[in-house]
Amino acid sequence: DFLFFWGAVFLVTTTLVALFKKENKELIPAKEETKGITDTYRLLFSIIKMPAVLTFCLLILTSKVGFSAADAVTGLKLVEEGVPKEHLALLAVPMVPLQIILPLVISKYTAGPQPLNTFYKAMPFRLLLGLEFAFLVWWAPKVKHEGGFPVYYYAVVVLSYALHQITLYSMYVAIMAFNAKVSDPLIGGTYMTLLNTVSNLGGNWPSTVALWLVDPLTVKECAGAQGHACGTAEAAEV
């Protein structure tokens, strides 16, 4: 029902835009961006070859490695420790207004000549919150009782997630502001898309690797089967 409702909203709004929104024909671009797919990829290749762009791409492709495990695995580990999935889902509700307000607040600090300063300042705090998330996972079985988890544990989780959202959005808005600032207006769409795609990749590949490494790096002990290791999934099943 949720997906059907928002699917209908998307269809209606995009149809209304197509019907009623007209292009401004008075404003003629100084130069046509591209003439086809081949030209677009040639243009992208020429952009990525620039030393400054290459350095920046390497930066944003590796900048999120430090907190990828905490971001990708914390929720799964909390569920593994017994925190109900529906409770974790409910904890996301207070984050919604925060997610709406944060970009508005942060954009004031990223609108200046050096938007990446916000990115650099937020990074150490986000790294520290990775340790905080590790503590939450370690703490979960300590405070668990027959009735579930105490209210103060959920309060700490909500506060931790709220602080995490502040650092996450500070970095996200800063990168978007920087990409918009450095993109050449003549090829703005292509330039922005390239930088934003690299930025998205920089967040996705470390999380994928972190999830893939969880099982091999998890230390397991076999209960009631002395002399047998549980290093592999097959051995653990036996």
Automatic annotation (TrEMBL):
Broad class of the protein's primary localization: membrane
GO cellular component: membrane
Membrane topology listed for this record: Multi-pass membrane protein
PANTHER family per record: ACETYL-COENZYME A TRANSPORTER 1 (PTHR12778:SF9), SOLUTE CARRIER FAMILY 33 ACETYL-COA TRANSPORTER -RELATED (PTHR12778)
Cellular localization per UniProt: Membrane
Pfam family, one: Acatn
Name of this chain's protein: ACATN protein
Keywords, alphabetical: Membrane, Transmembrane, Transmembrane helix
GO function terms (MF aspect): acetyl-CoA transmembrane transporter activity
Lineage: Eukaryota, Metazoa, Chordata, Craniata, Vertebrata
Organism: Smithornis capensis
Ranges that cross the membrane: 6-22, 43-67, 87-106, 118-139, 151-175
Gene Ontology biological process terms from the UniProt entry: acetyl-CoA transmembrane transport
